[in-house]
């Protein structure tokens, strides 16, 4: 129910004009936090999503703020693109590779070396721009952003300043600074300062992560720094149009820490305001300390830096043709939000929808399974239940398990058609997950075909009744609860293969038969 | 009329240090070939009249003789003999050798060479040896050329006299008390004194053309993008081009063809086809038949105004008359934006240089100042590493790009650049080539303008517009003015439409010589 609120708020903005519109103006507390969504993903237990209340001590403060103050939150997201090579040379780059192993005259900034733009960077930018329904600039350019830094070999970054490749969500190309990663292609996505709570902000970031993963432009991993969010927070009295002093928060390694950091920062600023010490809020960069659950000053801003931007003379302007953009548009995968709406129309619960659409690989697995004719709800249940639990235990992703969608569909059909029982189905599933193979092969190999021959079941029932005269007597004496005991015994004899319906029918007949 | 032009061929083309002649030049020929050292050398080598080793030795001997007076080289290769020997082996075995086989090439020291130091004339790069060859150098080597050494220059190309080199002052071979021009003064002097056959320079605001004029050699500044800049230490990236020096138009044309073409390592290099410039040269015996009939020549009025040496003006007018005699129609044209080019150039070039030179921060290259704190490291290393002219331009450029000044300087200069480009385009729609002096005067005394940077900057008035417009231009000797030992050479600048180095300029010029 809570999840559905979240979902519907997305649905309302089906055109997705810009990402910030997604989460704008929701009703305070009605959120499913990212944390619970993640837990759901991971454990696959069908728990009800719990609204996570950030910090009990802060909740009251925040409640108070909501009356008098309003927070203004903007997010700058850096997405490291998986272009295989760096942005301006052909050096490969991998996260975690030893320092300075993949460098050349160009990324070292040696005298005489020149940058040459990797066309995949533009391709990724266009993909993300289109997916966010931004307005693309068919003519854009690169600029130099200048400052001294030990790991900045040229003394400037190549970036886009005043003519970004896509606007409307504002999309920016940027390059980071350290030498081993110098030239690693980054996409910078800047939100409008439209968010009001930590949770809203972390939902925004999570949706961006989902999107870049769907598009295959980045692995979106926050721990590795492939997706980095810097958050700007200010507060102002409600009704005031002018923004308060802006504080930047860095070191946010997960969506939940982002939410908590923002909420902490809001309450810190509000407390200062309410104590008449609003002028103590400095324009500065603060670090989120996960251990202490608070933000601390990292560095004060000494006025605005002058980066002395000017057009990069080493790179010609980026000119996109309509044909190029159209080709990319045609190749775009279904967006997360479109997928969610489609799943919802199939009759899946909101919880199922959120889970399945969260990861594009899971969604693809699900889509392929139902394309093979599997029942939608059953397919969802299997994926979210035993398959997800197995993935979690074995620390595998859905692309790494041995089970293929074709066989899951087959399994579901075999159970539905009565060839095997649900219990045996599970047994087969674990075989498929661990070793692969086909449903048919496993059934044959393990001799697991369900026993549906009444005569055969009758024989087993008779055998069990004969072996348990005492219990039979008790049953017939009125202790009918023992039916379960007999059913269990027969199932055991059949090695679990007896058709449960048939078994019970015959068992009841025999138990009640006057011999 | 011909006598007023003083066609260089009828004069002693080379100053007094270079009077010994090459054995290769005496080769008899039935059809007069275009005047070209490169072609003469090729004929002499392939007909076994001379070996590469002999040829290289004669140049090296002259180099050793003249270098103490001229100081054109910062570094002389010790691999010349070995490379010459290798080529001789190939020729003896009748193997294919490239069009530059046996040609000794001087390379300006801001162009990277893998086996030699490349300092850009700056202390910050003292001892620096790049791990790669500039694309132009690589191509020269692949086609048989022998890099004889690295030539002196104003630090990072910033200057017009070569006095701003951190290492030495190069002298003008026509009068050693005078500057060779700059910033490619070493490359110009080396060709002028026959220390090498041809040389590479770089031209950001006239750094090939002005020294060519001062040293009495041919200097060719290609269209922006014609030659890859990969391996050229950036001064002002949107203006920089690698150019050629030679003792004839044919030599610069042959060298240009070798180094031209698209390079995937330079995104601004052009994908246009590179024509065979040499095949376009007209034969000298066509001279009597008005071979330039129909060629429209525009004489830029603003370049013959006050402030230009009267001797220079009369030489240019004389050359124009000579062009008319060869069949050209010469008209005087006006480029009203001409005088705006100089300040715009200095704003743009300084702005770009302030950025391009940021990489010399003391962290990576020689001359690291011994300090603990990071900002002091940057500050001290740069204070000690850069010379005054470079510092002046970094300061000017940083100022022009700063918040609050950007619109008044950088942006306005870009607008002027657009204006200049348009006015040249219009003039070149009406004319095939535009003509002007290459510099307002002949070579001046060493030290004369050293403490007056504005006077030195003003000397670039003839050339900077061509860089702003990205056009090709060629400077060749058109006579002498009084001064020095036996007169000082003066060059005429001929400007063509973009990528029109060939037809309209080279044909005309080779005949003019
Ligand atoms: Zn690289």
From TrEMBL, chain A:
Q: Which GO terms describe its cellular component?
A: chloroplast; glutamyl-tRNA(Gln) amidotransferase complex; mitochondrion
Pfam short name (any one): GatB_Yqey
Example of a GO biological process term: glutaminyl-tRNAGln biosynthesis via transamidation
Q: Name one GO molecular function term.
A: glutaminyl-tRNA synthase (glutamine-hydrolyzing) activity
Chief place where the protein resides: mitochondrion
- EC number(s) for this protein? 6.3.5.-
Matching PROSITE patterns = GATB
Which keywords are on file for this protein?
Answer: ATP-binding, Chloroplast, Ligase, Mitochondrion, Nucleotide-binding, Plastid, Protein biosynthesis, Transferase
Task: Supply the source organism for this entry.
Answer: Morella rubra
Q: Which family does it belong to?
A: Belongs to the GatB/GatE family. GatB subfamily.
What is the purpose of this protein? Answer: Allows the formation of correctly charged Gln-tRNA(Gln) through the transamidation of misacylated Glu-tRNA(Gln) in chloroplasts and mitochondria. The reaction takes place in the presence of glutamine and ATP through an activated gamma-phospho-Glu-tRNA(Gln). Allows the formation of correctly charged Asn-tRNA(Asn) or Gln-tRNA(Gln) through the transamidation of misacylated Asp-tRNA(Asn) or Glu-tRNA(Gln) in organisms which lack either or both of asparaginyl-tRNA or glutaminyl-tRNA synthetases. The reaction takes place in the presence of glutamine and ATP through an activated phospho-Asp-tRNA(Asn) or phospho-Glu-tRNA(Gln).
What is catalysed by this protein? L-aspartyl-tRNA(Asn) + L-glutamine + ATP + H2O = L-asparaginyl-tRNA(Asn) + L-glutamate + ADP + phosphate + 2 H(+); L-glutamyl-tRNA(Gln) + L-glutamine + ATP + H2O = L-glutaminyl-tRNA(Gln) + L-glutamate + ADP + phosphate + H(+)
Q: Which Gene3D superfamilies match?
A: 1.10.10.410, GatB domain, N-terminal subdomain
EC supergroup of this enzyme:
ligase
Protein name stated in the entry:
Glutamyl-tRNA(Gln) amidotransferase subunit B, chloroplastic/mitochondrial
Query: Where is this protein found?
Result: Mitochondrion; Plastid, Chloroplast
* Assembly and oligomerization: Heterotrimer of A, B and C subunits. Subunit of the heterotrimeric GatCAB amidotransferase (AdT) complex, composed of A, B and C subunits.
The UniProt entry, under InterPro entries, shows: Asn/Gln-tRNA_amidoTrfase_suB/E (IPR017959), Asn/Gln-tRNA_Trfase_suB/E_cat (IPR006075), Asn/Gln_amidotransferase (IPR018027), Asn/Gln_tRNA_amidoTrase-B-like (IPR003789), GatB (IPR004413), GatB_C_1 (IPR042114), GatB_Yqey_C_2 (IPR023168), Gln-tRNA_amidoTrfase_suB_CS (IPR017958)
Q: Which residues form the Asn/Gln amidotransferase domain?
A: 364-511
Automatic annotation (TrEMBL), chain B:
Asked whether the keyword Membrane is assigned, the reply is no
Enzyme Commission no: 6.3.5.7
* GO CC term, one of those recorded: glutamyl-tRNA(Gln) amidotransferase complex
Instruction: Name the UniProt key words of this record, in alphabetical order.
Output: ATP-binding, Chloroplast, Ligase, Mitochondrion, Nucleotide-binding, Plastid, Protein biosynthesis, Transferase
Q: Localized where?
A: Mitochondrion; Plastid, Chloroplast stroma
SUPFAM superfamilies, alphabetized:
Amidase signature (AS) enzymes
Q: What enzyme class is recorded for this protein? A: ligase
One Pfam annotation reads Amidase
Active-site residues (renumbered): 108, 183, 207
Its Gene Ontology molecular function terms?
ATP binding; glutaminyl-tRNA synthase (glutamine-hydrolyzing) activity; hydrolase activity, acting on carbon-nitrogen (but not peptide) bonds, in linear amides; transferase activity
- Domain named Amidase: residues: 55-502
> Which reaction does this enzyme catalyse, per its entry?
L-glutamyl-tRNA(Gln) + L-glutamine + ATP + H2O = L-glutaminyl-tRNA(Gln) + L-glutamate + ADP + phosphate + H(+)
| Gene Ontology annotations of biological process type | glutaminyl-tRNAGln biosynthesis via transamidation; mitochondrial translation
Kindly state the subunit structure of this protein: Subunit of the heterotrimeric GatCAB amidotransferase (AdT) complex, composed of A, B and C subunits.
Q: What else is known?
A: This protein may be expected to contain an N-terminal transit peptide but none has been predicted.
What function does this protein fulfil?
Answer: Allows the formation of correctly charged Gln-tRNA(Gln) through the transamidation of misacylated Glu-tRNA(Gln) in chloroplasts and mitochondria. The reaction takes place in the presence of glutamine and ATP through an activated gamma-phospho-Glu-tRNA(Gln).
Family listed: Belongs to the amidase family. GatA subfamily.
HAMAP family in the record, alphabetically? Answer: GatA
Protein's name in the database: Glutamyl-tRNA(Gln) amidotransferase subunit A, chloroplastic/mitochondrial
Species classification: Eukaryota, Viridiplantae, Streptophyta, Embryophyta, Tracheophyta
